[in-house]
Design goal:
Blueprint: E1 3-8, H1 13-25, E2 30-37, E3 62-71, H2 80-84, E4 89-94, H3 97-105, E5 111-113, H4 126-134, E6 138-142, H5 144-147, H6 155-171, E7 176-179, H7 191-200, H8 205-211, H9 214-228, H10 249-256, H11 259-267, H12 271-287, H13 292-307, H14 316-325
Parallel strand pairs: 1-2, 2-3, 3-4, 4-5, 5-6, 6-7
Helix pairs in contact: 3-4, 7-8, 10-11, 13-14
Protein backbone atom coordinates (compact mmCIF):
# COMPACT_ATOMS: atom_id res chain seq x y z
CA UNK A 1 0.00 0.00 0.00
CA UNK A 2 1.13 3.53 -0.79
CA UNK A 3 0.46 6.57 1.39
CA UNK A 4 0.30 10.32 0.81
CA UNK A 5 -0.21 11.92 4.20
CA UNK A 6 -0.31 15.58 3.17
CA UNK A 7 -2.91 16.91 0.71
CA UNK A 8 -3.94 20.45 1.73
CA UNK A 9 -7.66 20.92 2.30
CA UNK A 10 -9.30 23.84 0.49
CA UNK A 11 -12.84 24.98 -0.10
CA UNK A 12 -12.34 24.45 -3.84
CA UNK A 13 -14.11 21.11 -4.05
CA UNK A 14 -13.41 20.64 -7.76
CA UNK A 15 -9.64 20.89 -7.26
CA UNK A 16 -9.71 18.51 -4.28
CA UNK A 17 -11.74 16.02 -6.29
CA UNK A 18 -9.29 16.17 -9.22
CA UNK A 19 -6.33 15.71 -6.87
CA UNK A 20 -7.85 12.69 -5.14
CA UNK A 21 -8.83 11.10 -8.46
CA UNK A 22 -5.31 11.60 -9.81
CA UNK A 23 -3.74 10.10 -6.67
CA UNK A 24 -6.00 7.08 -7.04
CA UNK A 25 -4.80 6.66 -10.63
CA UNK A 26 -1.20 6.81 -9.34
CA UNK A 27 -1.94 3.72 -7.17
CA UNK A 28 -2.11 5.48 -3.80
CA UNK A 29 -4.29 3.75 -1.23
CA UNK A 30 -4.39 6.13 1.77
CA UNK A 31 -4.57 9.92 1.55
CA UNK A 32 -4.70 12.42 4.43
CA UNK A 33 -6.43 15.76 3.93
CA UNK A 34 -4.45 18.39 5.83
CA UNK A 35 -5.73 21.45 7.69
CA UNK A 36 -3.02 23.91 8.78
CA UNK A 37 -3.36 26.05 11.92
CA UNK A 38 -1.04 28.99 12.52
CA UNK A 39 -0.91 31.39 15.44
CA UNK A 40 -3.13 31.08 18.49
CA UNK A 41 -5.48 28.14 18.63
CA UNK A 42 -9.17 28.98 18.25
CA UNK A 43 -11.68 28.13 20.96
CA UNK A 44 -13.39 25.59 18.72
CA UNK A 45 -10.90 22.92 17.68
CA UNK A 46 -13.36 20.95 15.59
CA UNK A 47 -12.04 19.82 12.22
CA UNK A 48 -13.34 21.83 9.23
CA UNK A 49 -12.93 18.73 7.05
CA UNK A 50 -16.30 16.92 6.88
CA UNK A 51 -16.48 13.25 7.67
CA UNK A 52 -18.37 12.59 4.45
CA UNK A 53 -17.00 14.63 1.57
CA UNK A 54 -19.46 16.65 -0.54
CA UNK A 55 -18.37 14.62 -3.57
CA UNK A 56 -17.85 10.92 -4.17
CA UNK A 57 -14.15 10.04 -3.62
CA UNK A 58 -12.53 7.13 -5.46
CA UNK A 59 -13.56 3.84 -3.79
CA UNK A 60 -9.94 2.62 -3.64
CA UNK A 61 -8.85 5.55 -1.43
CA UNK A 62 -9.02 5.70 2.33
CA UNK A 63 -9.44 9.34 3.40
CA UNK A 64 -7.92 10.53 6.70
CA UNK A 65 -8.04 13.89 8.47
CA UNK A 66 -4.82 15.60 9.47
CA UNK A 67 -3.94 18.80 11.31
CA UNK A 68 -0.60 20.60 10.99
CA UNK A 69 0.22 23.10 13.76
CA UNK A 70 2.87 25.77 13.20
CA UNK A 71 5.16 26.12 16.22
CA UNK A 72 6.74 29.52 16.81
CA UNK A 73 6.73 30.05 20.58
CA UNK A 74 7.84 26.99 22.60
CA UNK A 75 6.41 28.38 25.83
CA UNK A 76 2.84 28.53 24.52
CA UNK A 77 0.39 25.84 25.60
CA UNK A 78 -1.02 24.41 22.40
CA UNK A 79 -3.59 22.01 23.88
CA UNK A 80 -2.28 19.16 21.76
CA UNK A 81 -4.31 16.48 23.54
CA UNK A 82 -7.60 18.22 22.72
CA UNK A 83 -6.45 19.00 19.19
CA UNK A 84 -5.34 15.45 18.40
CA UNK A 85 -8.68 13.97 19.46
CA UNK A 86 -10.42 15.75 16.54
CA UNK A 87 -8.07 14.47 13.82
CA UNK A 88 -6.61 11.18 12.65
CA UNK A 89 -3.04 12.54 12.42
CA UNK A 90 -1.40 15.45 14.24
CA UNK A 91 1.73 17.03 12.75
CA UNK A 92 3.94 19.83 14.06
CA UNK A 93 5.81 22.33 11.86
CA UNK A 94 8.48 24.16 13.89
CA UNK A 95 9.84 27.40 12.45
CA UNK A 96 12.95 27.83 14.62
CA UNK A 97 15.54 25.71 16.41
CA UNK A 98 14.02 25.98 19.89
CA UNK A 99 10.62 24.90 18.60
CA UNK A 100 12.26 21.99 16.75
CA UNK A 101 14.01 20.82 19.93
CA UNK A 102 10.78 20.99 21.92
CA UNK A 103 8.84 19.11 19.23
CA UNK A 104 11.47 16.35 19.06
CA UNK A 105 11.94 15.92 22.81
CA UNK A 106 8.64 16.50 24.61
CA UNK A 107 5.60 17.34 22.49
CA UNK A 108 3.17 14.51 21.73
CA UNK A 109 2.61 14.36 17.97
CA UNK A 110 2.64 11.85 15.12
CA UNK A 111 4.77 13.74 12.59
CA UNK A 112 7.29 16.57 12.46
CA UNK A 113 6.90 18.30 9.11
CA UNK A 114 9.45 20.91 8.05
CA UNK A 115 9.01 23.52 5.34
CA UNK A 116 12.09 22.61 3.32
CA UNK A 117 11.47 25.23 0.63
CA UNK A 118 12.95 27.93 2.91
CA UNK A 119 16.48 28.27 4.20
CA UNK A 120 16.99 27.41 7.88
CA UNK A 121 19.46 29.47 9.96
CA UNK A 122 20.60 26.31 11.80
CA UNK A 123 21.82 22.82 10.97
CA UNK A 124 19.89 19.62 11.63
CA UNK A 125 21.54 17.64 14.43
CA UNK A 126 21.39 13.88 14.79
CA UNK A 127 20.91 14.13 18.56
CA UNK A 128 17.83 16.33 18.21
CA UNK A 129 16.16 14.32 15.45
CA UNK A 130 17.23 11.02 17.02
CA UNK A 131 15.23 11.90 20.16
CA UNK A 132 12.09 12.16 18.02
CA UNK A 133 12.78 8.85 16.27
CA UNK A 134 13.27 7.10 19.61
CA UNK A 135 9.82 8.33 20.70
CA UNK A 136 8.26 6.98 17.50
CA UNK A 137 7.76 10.39 15.86
CA UNK A 138 8.55 10.42 12.12
CA UNK A 139 10.10 13.21 10.05
CA UNK A 140 8.23 14.34 6.93
CA UNK A 141 9.60 15.70 3.66
CA UNK A 142 7.19 17.37 1.20
CA UNK A 143 8.27 17.57 -2.44
CA UNK A 144 5.55 19.68 -4.11
CA UNK A 145 7.26 22.94 -3.16
CA UNK A 146 10.14 22.04 -5.49
CA UNK A 147 8.08 20.53 -8.31
CA UNK A 148 5.95 23.58 -9.13
CA UNK A 149 8.42 26.25 -8.01
CA UNK A 150 7.99 29.17 -10.42
CA UNK A 151 8.81 32.84 -10.17
CA UNK A 152 11.57 32.53 -7.55
CA UNK A 153 14.43 31.61 -9.84
CA UNK A 154 14.50 28.00 -8.60
CA UNK A 155 15.34 29.01 -5.01
CA UNK A 156 12.64 26.75 -3.50
CA UNK A 157 13.90 23.78 -5.51
CA UNK A 158 17.52 24.37 -4.43
CA UNK A 159 16.50 24.75 -0.78
CA UNK A 160 14.45 21.54 -0.99
CA UNK A 161 17.35 19.51 -2.33
CA UNK A 162 19.81 20.97 0.19
CA UNK A 163 17.55 20.59 3.22
CA UNK A 164 16.36 17.09 2.25
CA UNK A 165 19.96 15.90 1.80
CA UNK A 166 20.96 17.32 5.19
CA UNK A 167 17.86 15.86 6.86
CA UNK A 168 18.58 12.39 5.49
CA UNK A 169 22.17 12.68 6.68
CA UNK A 170 21.10 13.72 10.20
CA UNK A 171 18.53 10.91 10.56
CA UNK A 172 20.78 8.24 8.94
CA UNK A 173 17.91 7.60 6.52
CA UNK A 174 15.57 6.27 9.25
CA UNK A 175 12.06 7.43 10.10
CA UNK A 176 11.55 9.47 6.91
CA UNK A 177 8.08 9.93 5.40
CA UNK A 178 7.72 11.61 2.00
CA UNK A 179 4.44 13.33 1.17
CA UNK A 180 3.32 15.60 -1.64
CA UNK A 181 1.65 18.65 -0.02
CA UNK A 182 0.23 19.19 -3.49
CA UNK A 183 -2.34 21.94 -3.82
CA UNK A 184 -2.93 20.92 -7.43
CA UNK A 185 -3.07 17.59 -9.20
CA UNK A 186 -0.10 18.64 -11.37
CA UNK A 187 2.20 18.59 -8.33
CA UNK A 188 1.48 14.93 -7.51
CA UNK A 189 3.96 12.22 -8.41
CA UNK A 190 3.66 8.45 -8.43
CA UNK A 191 5.13 6.29 -5.65
CA UNK A 192 8.02 5.03 -7.76
CA UNK A 193 8.81 8.57 -8.92
CA UNK A 194 9.06 9.49 -5.23
CA UNK A 195 11.45 6.56 -4.69
CA UNK A 196 13.67 7.81 -7.52
CA UNK A 197 13.52 11.34 -6.11
CA UNK A 198 14.64 10.06 -2.71
CA UNK A 199 17.53 8.28 -4.41
CA UNK A 200 18.67 11.66 -5.78
CA UNK A 201 18.66 13.02 -2.23
CA UNK A 202 20.89 10.19 -1.05
CA UNK A 203 18.32 7.64 0.18
CA UNK A 204 18.63 4.03 -1.02
CA UNK A 205 15.91 2.44 -3.10
CA UNK A 206 14.77 0.16 -0.29
CA UNK A 207 14.59 3.01 2.21
CA UNK A 208 12.90 5.14 -0.42
CA UNK A 209 10.20 2.51 -0.85
CA UNK A 210 9.60 2.58 2.92
CA UNK A 211 9.05 6.37 2.92
CA UNK A 212 5.73 5.94 1.06
CA UNK A 213 4.96 2.50 2.47
CA UNK A 214 5.97 1.06 5.82
CA UNK A 215 7.05 4.28 7.57
CA UNK A 216 3.86 6.07 6.53
CA UNK A 217 1.76 3.11 7.62
CA UNK A 218 3.47 3.20 11.02
CA UNK A 219 2.34 6.80 11.46
CA UNK A 220 -1.28 5.92 10.68
CA UNK A 221 -1.34 2.84 12.93
CA UNK A 222 0.35 4.54 15.89
CA UNK A 223 -1.96 7.54 15.63
CA UNK A 224 -4.98 5.23 15.62
CA UNK A 225 -3.65 3.30 18.61
CA UNK A 226 -3.16 6.51 20.63
CA UNK A 227 -6.75 7.55 20.15
CA UNK A 228 -8.46 4.17 20.42
CA UNK A 229 -6.40 2.16 22.91
CA UNK A 230 -5.52 2.55 26.58
CA UNK A 231 -2.42 4.76 26.82
CA UNK A 232 -1.38 3.67 23.35
CA UNK A 233 -0.49 0.17 24.57
CA UNK A 234 -3.60 -1.97 25.09
CA UNK A 235 -6.30 -2.22 22.45
CA UNK A 236 -9.49 -4.21 23.06
CA UNK A 237 -10.25 -6.04 19.84
CA UNK A 238 -12.87 -8.47 21.23
CA UNK A 239 -14.68 -7.65 24.44
CA UNK A 240 -16.05 -11.14 25.15
CA UNK A 241 -19.59 -10.45 24.01
CA UNK A 242 -22.01 -13.32 24.58
CA UNK A 243 -22.60 -15.17 21.31
CA UNK A 244 -26.20 -15.78 20.20
CA UNK A 245 -27.71 -19.04 21.53
CA UNK A 246 -27.58 -21.98 19.09
CA UNK A 247 -30.82 -22.90 17.36
CA UNK A 248 -32.24 -26.18 18.68
CA UNK A 249 -33.32 -28.96 16.27
CA UNK A 250 -36.90 -28.66 17.46
CA UNK A 251 -36.94 -24.97 16.57
CA UNK A 252 -35.46 -25.66 13.16
CA UNK A 253 -38.09 -28.33 12.49
CA UNK A 254 -40.80 -25.95 13.68
CA UNK A 255 -39.60 -23.31 11.27
CA UNK A 256 -39.82 -25.80 8.40
CA UNK A 257 -43.44 -26.62 9.28
CA UNK A 258 -42.91 -30.13 10.65
CA UNK A 259 -43.65 -29.35 14.27
CA UNK A 260 -44.62 -32.93 15.19
CA UNK A 261 -41.33 -34.35 13.95
CA UNK A 262 -39.37 -31.66 15.76
CA UNK A 263 -41.15 -32.55 19.02
CA UNK A 264 -40.37 -36.24 18.53
CA UNK A 265 -36.69 -35.46 17.91
CA UNK A 266 -36.58 -33.22 20.97
CA UNK A 267 -38.00 -36.04 23.15
CA UNK A 268 -35.47 -38.53 21.80
CA UNK A 269 -38.11 -40.99 20.57
CA UNK A 270 -38.73 -42.69 17.27
CA UNK A 271 -41.59 -41.44 15.17
CA UNK A 272 -43.64 -44.68 15.50
CA UNK A 273 -43.27 -44.74 19.30
CA UNK A 274 -44.35 -41.14 19.64
CA UNK A 275 -47.37 -41.52 17.34
CA UNK A 276 -48.75 -44.93 18.48
CA UNK A 277 -47.34 -45.32 22.01
CA UNK A 278 -46.83 -48.92 23.29
CA UNK A 279 -48.91 -50.35 20.46
CA UNK A 280 -46.66 -48.78 17.91
CA UNK A 281 -43.63 -50.02 19.80
CA UNK A 282 -45.04 -53.61 19.76
CA UNK A 283 -45.80 -53.40 16.04
CA UNK A 284 -42.34 -52.12 15.30
CA UNK A 285 -40.79 -54.99 17.28
CA UNK A 286 -42.94 -57.59 15.41
CA UNK A 287 -42.04 -56.24 12.01
CA UNK A 288 -38.38 -56.06 12.93
CA UNK A 289 -36.45 -58.91 11.17
CA UNK A 290 -34.81 -61.60 13.35
CA UNK A 291 -31.05 -61.68 13.20
CA UNK A 292 -29.18 -64.87 12.28
CA UNK A 293 -27.73 -65.12 15.76
CA UNK A 294 -31.20 -65.05 17.28
CA UNK A 295 -32.38 -67.68 14.77
CA UNK A 296 -29.53 -70.04 15.76
CA UNK A 297 -30.20 -69.51 19.44
CA UNK A 298 -33.87 -70.33 19.08
CA UNK A 299 -33.16 -73.40 16.90
CA UNK A 300 -30.70 -74.73 19.47
CA UNK A 301 -33.21 -74.21 22.26
CA UNK A 302 -35.87 -76.07 20.33
CA UNK A 303 -33.50 -78.98 19.57
CA UNK A 304 -32.53 -79.34 23.22
CA UNK A 305 -36.16 -79.39 24.28
CA UNK A 306 -36.88 -82.09 21.67
CA UNK A 307 -34.09 -84.32 22.98
CA UNK A 308 -35.06 -83.81 26.66
CA UNK A 309 -38.84 -83.51 26.73
CA UNK A 310 -40.48 -82.23 29.85
CA UNK A 311 -43.93 -82.82 31.15
CA UNK A 312 -46.61 -80.38 30.22
CA UNK A 313 -47.57 -78.74 27.01
CA UNK A 314 -44.86 -76.94 25.12
CA UNK A 315 -44.56 -73.17 25.26
CA UNK A 316 -46.37 -71.23 22.52
CA UNK A 317 -43.23 -69.42 21.44
CA UNK A 318 -41.29 -72.69 21.17
CA UNK A 319 -44.01 -74.27 19.03
CA UNK A 320 -44.01 -71.26 16.72
CA UNK A 321 -40.24 -71.29 16.40
CA UNK A 322 -40.19 -75.09 15.81
CA UNK A 323 -42.74 -74.75 13.07
CA UNK A 324 -40.73 -71.95 11.51
CA UNK A 325 -37.50 -73.99 11.36
CA UNK A 326 -39.03 -77.52 10.85
CA UNK A 327 -37.96 -78.81 14.24
CA UNK A 328 -41.39 -79.37 15.79
CA UNK A 329 -41.17 -81.15 19.11
CA UNK A 330 -42.87 -84.54 18.55
CA UNK A 331 -42.48 -87.46 20.92
CA UNK A 332 -41.19 -90.69 19.36
CA UNK A 333 -43.73 -93.50 19.18
CA UNK A 334 -43.02 -96.54 21.28
CA UNK A 335 -42.33 -99.80 19.51
CA UNK A 336 -45.11 -102.33 19.88
Amino acid sequence: MFYDLNVPWTTNQAEIQRTLSFLAELDYNVVALNHTISGKLPADLKSPIPKSLPFQPPPSLRILQRCTLLLTDPSQNHRLATLSSNYDILALRPTNERALQQACQSLDADLISLDLSSRFPFHFKHKTLGAALQRGVKIEICYACGVLAVGDGGMARRNLISNATELIRATRGRGIVISSEAKKALACRGPWDVVNLAAVWGLGQERGRETVGREARTVVVQAEMKRRSFRGVIDIVYGGEKPPPPVKPAEEAGKKGDKGLGKVQALGKRKADALFGDKGKQQSEETKPISKREQKRRAKKARLEAENPVDGPPHEADVDVSKAFGTENTKPTEAG
